[in-house]
Amino acid sequence: QVQLVESGGGLVQAGGSLRLACVASGRTFTSNPMGWFRQAPGKEREFVATTFWRGGRTYYADQADSVKGRFTISRDIAENSVYLQMNNLKPEDTAVYYCAASTKTMRATREQDYDYWGQGSQVAVSS
Fold first, then answer.
1. Residue 95 bridge partners (DSSP)
2. Could you give the CA distance from residue 6 to residue 90 in angstroms, rounded to a whole number?
3. How many CB atoms are located within 10 Å of the residue 47 CB?
4. How confident is the model over 81-126, as pLDDT tens digits?
5. pLDDT by residue (tens digit) across 39-68?
6. Which of 84, 94, 103, 113 has its CA 20 to 30 A from that of 52?
7. 25 near 35, Cβ under 8 Å?
8. Residue range 13-31: average pLDDT?
9. Where are the beta strands (DSSP E) in the chain?
10. CA–CA distance, 127 with 121 (Å, rounded to integer)
C-alpha cells in the first residue's frame, strides 16, 4: 500500500519560512514526478511545483501570485521523499498543502496526472 506522509506545516508570520516534507512508502518514485498542490479556503486545489527526472528537473506554477523565486522544491531519491522550502511567505499562501506522486515519467502539473496523495498539511501565514 502506497502512503505519502507529510510534515512541517504550521503558523508563521508574513515574511517567514517553512519547510514541508513528504515521505513515500510502499513503492519508489525514483523516475516519476512528485509535486505539491495547495487548496486555500473557498478555492479549488491548485498546482504549486513538481520535480521529475530523478529530481533533476523542476517546474513551478506560472499564475499570478506565483511562488517562483520564493518556493523551492527538491527531492531526496534515496529517502523517496520530496520537500518544499517556502520563503518570504505571504498571507495569500495560507492553504492546505498536499504532496502527490505520479506513475507517469514526464512533467506532471494537473491533479489527474497524480495517483497518490498525502493527507495535507495546514500552512497559515499571518499579516
1. 123
2. 21
3. 22
4. 999 999 999 999 999 999 999 999 888 999 999 999 999 999 999 9
5. 999 999 999 999 987 778 899 998 746 788
6. 94
7. no
8. 96
9. 3-7, 10-13, 18-25, 34-39, 46-52, 57-60, 71-76, 81-86, 95-101, 116-117, 121-126
10. 20
* Position 23 pLDDT exceeds 80: yes
Residue 43 neighbours by CB distance under 10 Å = 9
CA distance 25 to 4: 7
CA–CA gap between residue 95 and residue 39 (Å, rounded)? 5
Residue-wise burial string across 98-122, b where 16 or more C-beta atoms lie within 10 A, e elsewhere: bbbbbeeeebbbeeebbebbbebbe
Reduced to 3 states, what is the DSSP secondary structure of residue 105? coil
- Tell me what percent of the chain is helix, strand and coil, each rounded to the nearest 5: 5, 50, 45
